[in-house]
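Lab notes, practical 5.
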Amino acid sequence: MTASVNHEDRAFRMISGHRTLDLLATLRDRYSDPSECLRTPADLDRWLAAAELEVETRTTEVELEAARRLRESVYRIVRCVLDREQPPTPELQLLNEWARRPATAPQIGPNLERHWSGGVEAALTVLAREAVELLATADRTLIRECAAAPECSRVYLDRSPGRRRRWCHMEWCGTNAKMRAYRRRRAVGA
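Output from the prediction step:
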């Protein structure tokens, strides 16, 4: 059952509707006790594989730190979008710098399976370019924060009919919030 997935594994689930927004979820509990899910280079390798961006090389410590910096720059820009504020110039510059770098290229193997040429930095470039595409188009108006905030700090794209999605994941945050509300109503009625 999905509800039993531990908090760290949730950060490696692609449920936000956009890979770059899923990367933001690798720093959990931003509002209370932040928990880094990209602690080791192997964690980033595992996340890239989950994001279908597995590359030819393994992550180094330098690349891991670069991924975290890129993630936090994108998060600050997304936060500005949510708050309807002007994004900070240094964050935009860092994102644009990443987007200008050489990216991975999809390749096809003899069994018609896709793999990516290039290394970790090239995969991060793909994520930066995807962030630029998201943030520079009307799709940025679909970015939402989970209604369970501050307990959940995940952001996602709301492509639901009527744009009324409230939770990052119904079985995780939605069910918990509805159960808390039910218990409150029941306690008041007793």
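Observations recorded by the TA: The longest strand covers residues 105-108. The domain at 2-189 is CATH 1.10.3300.10 (Jann2411-like fold).
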